[in-house]
UniProtKB/TrEMBL annotation:
Required co-factors: Zn(2+)
Sorted UniProt keywords: Cell wall biogenesis/degradation, Hydrolase, Metal-binding, Metalloprotease, Protease, Signal, Zinc
Pathway: Cell wall biogenesis; cell wall polysaccharide biosynthesis
Name of the protein described by the UniProt record: Murein endopeptidase K
Length: 161
C-alpha cells in the first residue's frame, strides 16, 4: 500500500454585510481570502463607505474590515452592520465639526479612511462596544445618545461621547 499525502486548500473567506443608514445602499461582499485582500472588493467597499455628503471616495484601511469581521465572529452575529459614517473629506469633517456643537475631531481618522461609525441591529450597543474593546485593535468610541460606536485602526484607546 502506498501512503499519499493529503493537502487541503481551505482558504478562509472573510466577508461583510453592510447597510448604509444615509445612502440606503447595502452590500454583501467577500473582501479577503486568507490573508489576501481582493482588490475589486476593496474598491467596492471604498465606494460604499464614501463621504455621503460630497460623494468623494476615500481609500479605506482594510484593517477596519478585519475589525468588523472579528466583531461579527465574536458576537456570533450574521446581521448586517448599520453604517453611519465611513470616509469623510476634510471639508465635510470641518463642516460637521463647526456645526454639530462638538463631537467631531479636528483631525478625525475618518479623513484618513481609518474609522467607521456603526451599530448592529439585535446587538445591544454596550455589548458591541465591549466586544470592540476586547479586540484591542484600535480606538473605540461609545455614543449611546446617538446609538453608534466608533471603531478605528489608530492606537488603542476608548472614550464616550
Amino acid at each position: 500500500m502506498i501512503a499519499r499525502a493529503t493537502t487541503f486548500s481551505s482558504v478562509l473567506e472573510k466577508d461583510l454585510s453592510l447597510d448604509h443608514t444615509h445612502t440606503r445602499e447595502s452590500i454583501e461582499i467577500v473582501y479577503a481570502k486568507g490573508r489576501r485582500y481582493i482588490p475589486q472588493a476593496l474598491d467596492n467597499l471604498n465606494h460604499f463607505l464614501r463621504d455621503h455628503y460630497s460623494g468623494l471616495v476615500g481609500q479605506m484601511d482594510p484593517g477596519l474590515y478585519d475589525i468588523m469581521h472579528a466583531l461579527r465572529s465574536t458576537l456570533k452575529a450574521d446581521l448586517p452592520f448599520h453604517i453611519i459614517s465611513g470616509y469623510r473629506s476634510p471639508k465635510t469633517n470641518e463642516h460637521l465639526r463647526t456645526t454639530r456643537g462638538g463631537g467631531v475631531a479636528r483631525r478625525s481618522l475618518h479623513m484618513d479612511g481609518k474609522a467607521v461609525d456603526l451599530r448592529m441591529p439585535g446587538v445591544p450597543l454596550k455589548e458591541l462596544r465591549d466586544a470592540a474593546l476586547e479586540l484591542k485593535r484600535g480606538g473605540v468610541g461609545y455614543y449611546p445618545g446617538s446609538n453608534f460606536i466608533h471603531v478605528d485602526t489608530g492606537r488603542v484607546r476608548a472614550w464616550a461621547g
